[in-house]
Amino acid sequence: IETLIVKDDAKTEKLASKPAVYVDVIRNEEIQAARLKLPILAEEQQIMEVVNDNPVVIIAGETGSGKTTQVPQFLFEAGYALKKQIAVTEPRRVAAISMSQRVALEMNLSSREVSYLIRFEGNVTEDTKIKFMTDGVLLKEVQSDFLLSKYSVVVLDEAHERQRLVFRSVYTDILIGLLSRIVPLRHKRGDPLKLIVMSATLRLEDFTLNRRLFRNPPPVVKVDARQFPVTIHFNKRTNDDYLKDAFNKAVKINTKLPEGGILIFVTGQQEVNSLVRKLRKAFPLRHKEQILERSAELRENGDEDVEEGMRTALRKKRKLKILPEINLDDYSVPGDTEHASDDDDITDEDDSNVEVTTITNAQPLWTLPLYSLLPSHKQQKVFQPPPPGCRLCVVSTNVAETSLTIPGVKYVVDTGKAKVKLYDKVTGVTSYVVHWTSKASADQRAGRAGRTGPGHCYRLYSSAVFNDTFQDYSVPEIQQKPVDDLYLQMKCMNVDKVVNFPFPTAPDLLQLKTAESRLETLGALKAGKVTPLGRAIARFPLLPRYGKMLALSHQQDLLPYTICLVAALSVQEVLLEVPVLQTSLEEKKQTRQRWATTRLQWAGQGNSQLLGDNMVLLKAVGAAEYANTQGKLERFCEENGLRHKAVVEIRKLRLQLTNEIKNNVPDAEVVVDPKLEPPTDLQAKLLRQVLLSGMGDQIARKISLDEVKEGEDKARFKYAYQANNMEEPVFLHQGSVLKKLLPQFVVYQEVYETNKMYMRGVTAIEPEWLPVYVPSLCNLSEPLLSPEPRYDPSTGKVLCTVSGTFGPQAWELPQMEI
Ligand code: ADP
Ligand code: MG
């Protein structure tokens, strides 16, 4: 920024209409040369003219044309960061981090000036000029400063990407709606805000033809990417085993077809790993490249003495019998050899039924995995050229569809599938299904083959399937998942009639109604207005039910537990069911038994025990933290069947939530302390009430065997429950510690469907608590003395005194303060 120079060239004149300055950026030559090859650079002047002259602009361009990395730089050079900041939102966390780093590098600026802010972390400073963030972060900022007054321009990137699998991802939709109102407001104040919506060339009409959103259709600048022709090859037949097909296709390409990288699209992390493993087995790297890769890793890990590192690597491999003694010039390593990069998360899972033999006389394949949870330095590998003599092969989820552009890809293998999280609109039951992608996605995928030259796309399905079965576009996520958090946030922003909000694609009425009624049940809304409790809930960056649990745990000795529980419940698959390491069946069985015994011990006795699987989670986290202080976390996780990454994520979330509460609720006096003593019996009881308070709409009652109809198999109903909002029975899942107790009433976190409907995150509750927390679900014969918990905003506490009758039983609760 010190090198602020007002230039006197043509460009400055053109731009002089608005910001009269041109901020010079000094880039290194190599970077500048690479930039000049990007199609968007030729459009800089046109883009900036349109931006200067219009409040809202849409930039549409193929993936890889340079939108994300270049547009923020254009804005910076045109002076948009002189007085205020430039905001860029990304739907994916990894994109926010990696793009901020890339742009900083290209501009020769530090991370103090080009920074990022995501849910868990950030490096924003007071010197920040360009700020990459997730759309959720910007939405939070709208709530504290509706006019977004610290920004001169907001760039909403990947606006087409409205279907994502990450946590709370309908933000882009609300942001666009809100910004369509903020822009004119800022204009009225004489402090204009620019809005730039960037998108692949998909569904543009959602933005341009929606008169409720923008009264005057905003101008669209199209960036023509240099796209080479891609020949599409359909399969004659559509086979079920698309992974096997993909493998065979990759083998064919590598053995028969000319030079050029391969990009394979599959549906999830596991498929990526399994295919990478097979391809590495089939086309192993030569010895030299293994060492090369190993040394690159050592260098990456800050190991200065690479020579020594290589020798160590060699020794290590020999000792582990991974590398047999071979001549350095030997062409390939025998088939049972593992790939050299032994720490890139490609663990050995049970693929033993698949025979893969090493294919000799073929080029070694530089096979890399790519998925969004892969650590970002490992993702960066796909941007580097493969070692000499190797062909690049990236196996990816749909991350590579629009977010990241991999150089040098000539062959795309498209399985045509994507993993979709399906939600039942009423119950919120989630299930993952592998489904056909859309025509638009398939075309995006094919396009990846034509970035550097003419390419080929192999579609592993027939043209008939494509034409008849594929939808044109994927359904935006806002139309698929519960919108509770969105609804509450909008109510807090005083959007009175959410139904009338200018969504680019409106969620359907049923969803909005369901959200509203769930929020009423939680006590966050009353007669359509947000309650003080609702506001307390909305302060937490979580689904309202979890927000409520935190709001009610507003008591020093309970918050750490609830924070831990909420963190653990937000992370998928903490407790493993099946050992992943390849062992014999007998060993696997023993391991599972050992895990089950430990979990029963963790569940404890008395009220602790009734906390069920959630007690197991609390103890697991506490014990893991202890193991961590001893430097034995990974081993501990392995021995006790905890997913290591999940434990790390839980810790991050706990820290984040603790800080959040500290900042928002000054009297909470929470301290960031990873240590977690097991709760006492009383605390365990209160925690059960807290869980009920958040999950009161997800109650299930044990089905007694007398209720089972004649002719039905009674044994089937041993672990069966009747949920309050479902007809089908739901079951305690296999690993649940509550199977020993079979409590009369439980609340559950989630129901998922495999062969049956199973409950996850189950806690036993006492029936007399129901009228306190979920009066709307009870049939009360006597009026309650104090039917609502009273929330006292000054102390942040919730008090209630309740007595009455519930069915034939009389009950009374002491005054509770939770
Ligand atoms: P778009 O947003 O239009 O899809 P990008 O700005 O993301 O395009 O990418 C432009 C170019 O920059 C691509 O060729 C991509 O490969 C390259 N690129 C992006 N990130 C990196 C990185 N971290 N390292 C090297 N090249 C990168
Ligand atoms: Mg981009």
From TrEMBL:
Any GO BP annotation: maturation of SSU-rRNA from tricistronic rRNA transcript (SSU-rRNA, 5.8S rRNA, LSU-rRNA)
Helicase C-terminal domain location: 242-494
Protein family according to the UniProt entry: Belongs to the DEAD box helicase family. DEAH subfamily.
EC number, as in UniProt: 3.6.4.13
Species, as recorded: Exocentrus adspersus
Molecular function via GO: ATP binding; hydrolase activity; RNA binding; RNA helicase activity
Enzyme class: hydrolase
Reactions mediated catalytically: ATP + H2O = ADP + phosphate + H(+)
Keyword tags: ATP-binding, Helicase, Hydrolase, Nucleotide-binding
Stretch of the intact protein here: 207 to 1024 of 1131
Segments forming domain Helicase ATP-binding: 48-220
GO terms under cellular component: nucleolus
Keyword Nucleotide-binding: yes
Protein's UniProt name: RNA helicase
